[in-house]
């Protein structure tokens, strides 16, 4: 069974890389977007197991985004993704999913 | 009462990709060890051997303070900020990835293996403007001395980062003893032995061993071989 992971970040290049990295593993299904509106739209239409918050989201926007995400899917885990690439990704996801 | 954790050389993660032979002090890439995730804000300490002419093509980073110390050889670096540089052994490079930066790193030499330490610290502020710096270090200044090579202060010698962290390098004669005072309350020390053999707070460490010490104000150090070289990383223990 695949784990669905939604990545939200502002940098297009990093978002493309994250999409490639997440979907390279058969056990993960990655959906990567740059806008909060796209993210909310996805959360309204499919179950997501984990949300990764990427670069460029300021603290005010992050608070609002987290509130909106949890209002749609209260049980989804939300973590910060650091580093913008593959280095920390696997560890972050494994830790978050327990 | 001070606390410590020992990370012996042979307990590090290892990945040999042929052109890249990497040892990871903390979980990185496909190496995942829940007990080795970070030491305070120190998240990555990679000890990479890279064959001549080989390296990492353009790849992005964000929200991380990335410090690279070549121990042997030279790195060719290019990034999306327009920097193009070679960093030689004896120099230090720092990059604040902040809102996002793309870079490539290659062994600048065709016939010499590159050995580098790459260190990632969580920043104390997210989404800063990306920045790059490199400095040549005065190698003589670290003889029997912990030479500060990195700090949070732009006015200090050498390089600075967005974190309350101080790095020092020292190269010591056999029998030399000293103490190191931690720079900020709440920080801990992660000491990595580059070469030789030392004792830190009575623990014997050999090449590529490390010790993390916290809940203390200072550490005691003694070189027990003639070629002892140590990197001290004085880092906040609390994640921001």
UniProtKB/TrEMBL annotation, chain B:
<protein>
    <recommendedName>
        <fullName>Pirin family protein</fullName>
    </recommendedName>
</protein>
<feature type="domain" description="Pirin N-terminal">
    <location>
        <begin position="12"/>
        <end position="121"/>
    </location>
</feature>
<dbReference type="InterPro" id="IPR041602">
    <property type="entry name" value="Quercetinase_C"/>
</dbReference>
<dbReference type="Pfam" id="PF02678">
    <property type="entry name" value="Pirin"/>
</dbReference>
<comment type="similarity">
    <text>Belongs to the pirin family.</text>
</comment>
<dbReference type="InterPro" id="IPR003829">
    <property type="entry name" value="Pirin_N_dom"/>
</dbReference>
<dbReference type="InterPro" id="IPR014710">
    <property type="entry name" value="RmlC-like_jellyroll"/>
</dbReference>
<dbReference type="InterPro" id="IPR011051">
    <property type="entry name" value="RmlC_Cupin_sf"/>
</dbReference>
<dbReference type="InterPro" id="IPR012093">
    <property type="entry name" value="Pirin"/>
</dbReference>
<dbReference type="Pfam" id="PF17954">
    <property type="entry name" value="Pirin_C_2"/>
</dbReference>
<feature type="domain" description="Quercetin 2,3-dioxygenase C-terminal cupin">
    <location>
        <begin position="149"/>
        <end position="235"/>
    </location>
</feature>
């Amino acid at each position: 069974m695949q784990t669905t992971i939604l990545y939200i970040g502002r940098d297009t290049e990093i978002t493309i890389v994250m999409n490639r990295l997440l979907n390279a593993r058969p056990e993960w299904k990655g959906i990567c977007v740059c806008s909060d509106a796209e993210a909310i739209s996805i959360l309204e239409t499919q179950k997501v197991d984990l949300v990764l918050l990427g670069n460029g989201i300021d603290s005010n926007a992050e608070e609002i985004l987290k509130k909106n995400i949890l209002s749609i899917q209260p049980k989804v885990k939300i973590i910060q993704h650091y580093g913008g690439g593959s280095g920390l990704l696997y560890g972050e996801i494994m830790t978050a999913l327990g | 009462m001070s606390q410590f954790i020992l990370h012996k050389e042979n307990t590090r993660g290892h990945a040999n990709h042929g052109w890249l032979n990497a040892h990871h002090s903390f979980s990185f890439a496909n190496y995942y060890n829940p007990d080795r995730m970070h030491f305070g804000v120190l998240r990555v300490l990679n000890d990479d051997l890279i064959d001549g002419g080989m390296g990492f093509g353009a790849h992005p980073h964000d929200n991380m303070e990335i410090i690279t110390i070549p121990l042997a050889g030279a790195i060719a670096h290019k990034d999306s900020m327009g920097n193009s540089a070679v960093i030689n052994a004896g120099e230090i490079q720092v990059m604040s990835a902040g809102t996002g930066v793309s870079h490539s790193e290659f062994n600048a030499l065709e016939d010499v293996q590159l050995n580098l330490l790459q260190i990632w610290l969580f920043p104390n502020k997210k989404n800063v403007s990306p920045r790059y710096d490199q400095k040549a270090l005065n190698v003589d200044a670290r003889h029997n001395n912990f030479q500060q090579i990195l700090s949070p202060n732009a006015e200090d010698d050498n390089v600075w980062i967005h974190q309350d962290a101080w790095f020092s390098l020292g190269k010591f004669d056999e029998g030399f003893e000293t103490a190191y005072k931690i720079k900020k309350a709440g920080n801990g020390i992660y000491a990595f032995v580059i070469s030789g053999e030392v004792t830190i707070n009575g623990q014997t460490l050999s090449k590529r061993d490390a010790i993390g010490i916290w809940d203390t104000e200072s550490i005691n150090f003694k070189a027990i071989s003639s070629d002892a070289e140590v990197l001290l990383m004085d880092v906040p223990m609390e994640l921001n």
